[in-house]
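Title: Prediction job returns without error message
Component: structure pipeline
Severity: low
Priority: P3
Assignee: unassigned

Description:
Job completed but the reporter wants confirmation the result is attached to the right record. Sequence as submitted:
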Amino acid sequence: MSTPVITPAARAAAKPPLAAPAATGVAVVLALALIALGIVAARDALIAIGAISGSAWIAAALNFLHGLTAQTWMLPAGLATAVLGISVVFVAVKPRRRTHLALRVPATWIRRRDIVQLARSAARAITGVSTVTAAGSARTITLAVTPLAGYDTTALKDTVRTAVDDALTELARPPRVRVRVKEQGPS
């Protein structure tokens, strides 16, 4: 049995990894409320068939609502409900943020925080580097390098920048790299 050959044109482009939708929290709360309503309805159904004793909650709630007339608290409550409803709609259609960055290899991604760690590791591997702290984002990475005693800090700065740039070449959009070499105090 032979394996089917998939041409590059037949492959679908992979979509970038995205964060969970912003509406996830709202959906969980609404689902829990719906489950609670289902439990109340099941309780009232068991009361109606005589399986358990008690008074029906849904009928009591509907009777309470049926007797209501317009009151002053209803206008602010209605406005608050409308604002809440509009905000839920906006949350539901809000685009999800990208969590990974593309590499040059198609359909290959790297997490944003791993880019900083990759830059830190590349700088740490340079001879003459004692410690490295790295911070930044997908656009700019700042490295603070502490050299070993006796190393030329000017040459070390250029070497670290080159090594980090080489480590980040596989990114589709490599970030700018800033290297700060901490000056050594007198021994």
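Comment from assignee: result matches the submitted record. The mean pLDDT is 88.
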